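agent> Task received from the user: take the single chain below, predict its 3D structure, and emit structure tokens. No templates, no multimer pairing.
agent> Plan: (1) validate residues, (2) run structure prediction, (3) serialize to tokens, (4) report one or two observations.
agent> Step 1 OK, no nonstandard residues flagged.
tool_call: predict_structure(input=
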Amino acid sequence: MTDVKAVVFDVGRVIVQWDLRHLFAKLIDDPARLDWFLANVVTQEWHFEHDAGRALADMVPQRKAQFPQYADLIDAYASRFLETIPGPVPGTLPLIEQLAAREVPLFGITNFGDEFWTQFRPTMPIFDHFADIVVSGTEKMVKPDRAIFDLAAVRFGHSPADMLFIDDNADNIASARALGWQVHLFTKAEGLAADLRERALIQ
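)
tool_result: status=success, residues=203
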């Protein structure tokens, strides 16, 4: 196993919980209607357009024109996005603190809309430990595309082989592995902790 000189985290579902349902379950009380809305109106696929760099000022009016009966709910997507993030993933923040205490260089690569990241970043002081975070919506490139990993390697100043990339998405992990990164497919913090200990990154 090659020594790890830096650890690179995904954000959503690795560091913080994220699900559009967390917001819209507060606004739609009929479970069947909620399921339909999330499958057809404010979908993960549509949300991913913001992750990829499309502006909310473009996305939201167009979607409201398509679904005028849901205009208020589509507005809520833009104005109340932080409510889709209910809190940290259990167990991950202490691992970041341990890595930081051992002065392991920390970085991030996240698929996250630029406007939403601007709102979210100040709510999470844990990111003060990170030397740099590549945000897809800011760079207009997304995982699992090679370009975002190549950009990250240049920005972080380490070769892919010297970095451990942690993500919950198997496609992102496969892409990073193909580019020479060391990888960990995240499911729970306990599994990550075991991997970090095996690599002698934490005790």
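agent> Step 4: summary for the user.
The first strand starts at residue 6 and ends at 9.
agent> Done.
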